[in-house]
Specification:
Elements lengths: L1 H81 L18 E2 L13 H9 L5 E2 L8 E8 L6 H11 L4 E4 L1 H6 L1 H9 L3 E4 L14 H19 L5 E2 L5 E2 L1 H9 L3 E3 L16 H10 L5 E6 L3 H16 L3 E2 L7
Parallel strand pairs: 2-8, 3-4, 3-9, 3-10, 4-5, 6-8
Antiparallel strand pairs: 1-7
Helix pairs in contact: 3-9, 6-7, 8-9
Length: about 325
């Protein structure tokens, strides 16, 4: 009986030890599985972080591209602006003489047939970014047309200039640009220069206006051409040719060059057009180096004789110059 009891105790102890081993084995297996899962999670986290790090420069690069693009466009615009004149600012404009002067020339000419008055004024007002004549002895002339309103002549003038491969400057008012956008677009697209001729073309001249109003007359037209045609102007023509020292300074400080003329005649009266033969002869008699011809695009006479005039001056050895603001 005693031996039987001992055997039962030994069996129980063995079973208990076996159970303990099994439990420990299960705990160890659980620990291993836990560590494996943690490593797996760490690996996935690391991979995710690496992926995020890898993707981040792509996102940043896209942002950089989006930011760089406008800067590139601004640089392009700056380069475009760099080709236009940058006038030294004239100080104390308010203190300058505002006595209105009408531009016109006397009959006296030099040995090259250049009007002496134009040469004299060119020298006198040289500090105001202005041309009364191009001071050169080279055989070159410049064609300029004033455009206040469209009288149906401009398309034919543009056709002739295109046929003769001749450049010109067209000085337009804001109402003209508003009412004849297709013609302004042709001027630009066909390589001509478009100049500023104010908004309202004040009949009493620029000096009759305040400095603020003069500035507005220029800059309102300037802004309209930029906004609607993407075109920056740099040349200005005075309505009626009336100017003053103060008004020259105003135009200069608007970063414009004032363009007068060394030849003009009465071609602006649509109801009293000059004779074509007499007009052509007059234009040729007055030709001179650096000549700035003021013509009106409302003139049927000018329109009809333009081609013949271009041919005739070229036959004399002259070229039709491309007007720039720095010549």
């Amino acid at each position: 009986m005693k031996n039987k009891t001992v055997k039962m105790i030994i069996r129980a102890i063995f079973c208990l030890l076996l159970l303990t081993v099994v439990i420990l084995a299960l705990l160890g297996l659980q620990h291993l599985l836990k560590n494996s899962q943690e490593k797996k999670n760490q690996t996935m986290t690391t991979a995710t972080e690496q992926k995020a790090v890898t993707e981040e420069p792509v996102s940043t690069e896209e942002n950089v591209i989006e930011q760089v693009q406008p800067e590139t466009e601004m640089e392009t615009e700056t380069e475009t602006e760099a080709v236009t004149l940058q006038n030294p600012v004239i100080p104390n404009v308010e203190a300058l003489d505002n006595t209105s002067q009408g531009w016109g020339m006397g009959p006296t000419r030099d040995e090259l047939n250049r009007p002496v008055d134009a040469l004299s004024y060119q020298e006198k007002y040289a500090g105001y970014s202005v041309d009364f004549i191009k001071p050169t002895e080279e055989k070159v002339i410049y064609l300029t047309f004033d455009e206040g309103y469209e009288y149906g002549m401009t398309a034919q003038i543009l056709d002739t200039l295109k046929e003769k491969n001749a450049p010109a400057v067209f000085f337009v008012t804001k109402p003209y640009a508003e009412s004849s956008p297709e013609l302004v677009r042709r001027m630009i697209d066909e390589g001509h220069v478009v100049g500023n001729h104010t908004v309202h073309h004040p009949s009493s001249g620029m000096p009759s206006l305040s400095i603020t109003d003069q500035t507005n007359e220029i800059m309102e037209t300037d802004a309209y051409l930029k906004e609607n045609f993407g075109y920056s102007m740099s040349l200005f023509r005075y309505p009626t040719g009336q100017f003053s020292e103060q008004s020259l300074a105003v135009v200069n400080n608007c970063n414009y060059r004032s363009v007068f003329w060394s030849f003009a005649y009465k071609d602006w009266d649509v109801n009293n057009q000059p004779d074509e033969t007499e007009s052509l002869n007059l234009l040729l008699q007055k030709v001179h180096p650096g000549a700035i011809y003021l013509l009106h695009a409302e003139s049927q006479t000018n329109t009809n004789i333009l081609g013949s005039f271009i041919d005739a001056v070229r036959a004399q050895g002259y070229t039709i110059g491309v007007y720039t603001d720095t010549l």
